[in-house]
Amino acid sequence: MRTRLLCILCMCLYGMTPLMAQSDKLIRELEDRRARLQKQMAETEVLLDSTRRTTAGQLNRLALLAGQMEERRRYIVVINQDIETVDREMQAADDRLSRLEESLREKRDRYAASVRYLYRHRSIEEKLMFIFSAKDLAQIYRRLRYVREYADYQRMQGEAILRQQERVNEKKDELARVRQAKQALLAERGREMQALESQEKEQRGLVDALRRKQRSLQNEVARQRKEAARLNSRIDRLVAEEVEKARKRAEAEARREAEERKHLAEPPRQTAAAPPKLDTADRKLSGSFVSNRGKLPMPITGPAVIVSHYGQYAVKGLRNVRLDNKGIDIQGHPGAQARAIFGGKVAAVFSLDGLFNILVRHGAYISVYCNLSSTLVKVGDDVSTLQPLGTVFTNAADGNRTVLHFQLRKETAKLDPELWLDK
Predict the structure, then answer these.
(1) Residue 205 contacts by C-beta under 8 Å, 6 or more apart in sequence?
(2) In whole angstroms, what is the distance from residue 225 CA to residue 227 CA?
(3) For residue 332, what pLDDT is reported?
(4) Which residues pair with 308 in a beta bridge?
(5) SS3 for the chain, per residue?
(6) CB under 8 Å to 57, separation ≥6 — which residues?
(7) Closest by CA position to 316, among listed 147, 82, 84, 70
(8) What pLDDT is attached to residue 266?
(9) d(Cα 36, Cα 191) in Å, to the nearest integer?
(10) What stretches in the chain show pLDDT beneath 50?
(11) How does pLDDT run across 140-193, given as a tens digit for each residue?
């Protein structure tokens, strides 16, 4: 019987036991995630301190402001997700508290009933009469053991109630901390919404200023397009040359394999429908590169923000201003370095208008790093992931603006780098 009583008591005590640190751990994880995003935003907001009154400067500032507003909107989305998570945790904690309180009430009722029973049979004489009124010695022993076990059960029940009360108090404290975390999140969201509204106001002001000098704006956009066309033409030619080199390597490998089979008197393989484009090493490297899609590091060191996206898009609020980017533009701090997004081999290093540009081959894929003031690698060098390639140019005449132009190709096809990077 004693064993059975102990089992019942343990089931009552531990059957509904929650992980007490669950809510606190969740809140800490959410806080750590937001702290990283806050740090990133704070570091990139410093970039806004540099600005110029020229059309080019205002257009660049508009692009930087748009990039930072995107970051802030993503951060607000994260806050909203965290609020939903905390709401769910509050509901779960409230449910756990209700179950604990219900279990505590049941324990108290059972304890009160047993106390009333003991009170009615509290005298030693009654206990002795109960024991010695047994018919034989075996029954006397069983009744004596029952009295002892009942007393032990009563004591354990009282201790269990005290422990349960402590758990209820702990759960109330936990629920209070979760509610406090939600209030902090709501306040933080309010601050970020205000900051976003302030940025949107500044954005409207910049757009209005640029509208007033439409001709100057069109001239600046045309100048940028012309520079981009010259750069892309050079990159296209170098990429095509690199693709041709890869094709020749693949054909040479295929010929070597055919010669080896011929000398070994092996039957020739069935002729492929199309000649190979990549040799074995390039195919292996390409497969490894593809498996890291969405996980590749940013191609610039330090805090940075994407200020111009891939593809054709209009500038919000400006008439007849349509940009076409073959890659992305990433603004960082002065002194930032371009770094390899993956292991590979330097395929080309060339200079244009006094600035350096680097192509790194990763099998069928080629990453392109432009607008460097100096380089740390040369053609033919093997590079590893995150290896510095050169220093990004800082334009002292444009408020120390430091922008890396980055492209990604699969052979000659242009890709959206943002789909491959872990931003």
Answers:
(1) none
(2) 5
(3) 92
(4) 329
(5) CHHHHHHHHHHHHHCCCCCCCHHHHHHHHHHHHHHHHHHHHHHHHHHHHCCCCCHHHHHHHHHHHHHHHHHHHHHHHHHHHHHHHHHHHHHHHHHHHHHHHHHHHHHHHHHHHHHHHHHHCCCHHHHHHHHHCCCCHHHHHHHHHHHHHHHHHHHHHHHHHHHHHHHHHHHHHHHHHHHHHHHHHHHHHHHHHHHHHHHHHHHHHHHHHHHCCHHHHHHHHHHHHHHHHHHHHHHHHHHHHHHHHHHHHHHHHHHHHHHHHHHCCCCCCCCCCCCCCCCHHHHHHHHHHHCCCCCECCCECCCEEEEECCEEEECCCCCCCEEEECCEEEEECCCCEEECCCCEEEEEEEEECCEEEEEEEECCEEEEEEEEEEECCCCCCEECCCCEEEEECEEHHHCCEEEEEEEEEECCEEECHHHCECC
(6) 51, 398, 399
(7) 70
(8) 62
(9) 17
(10) 1-20, 50-51, 123-125, 128, 132
(11) 556 556 656 666 666 666 676 777 777 777 777 777 777 888 888 888 888 888
Query: What are the tokens at 106?
Result: 């049941």
Rounded to whole angstroms, what are the CA distances from 384 to 166, 283, 343, 344, 376?
Answer: 56, 18, 4, 7, 13
231 within 8 A of 352, measured Cβ to Cβ = yes
Q: What number of residues does the chain have?
A: 423
The whole-number pLDDT of residue 61 equals 79
Question: What's the distance, CA 123 to chain centroid?
Answer: 70
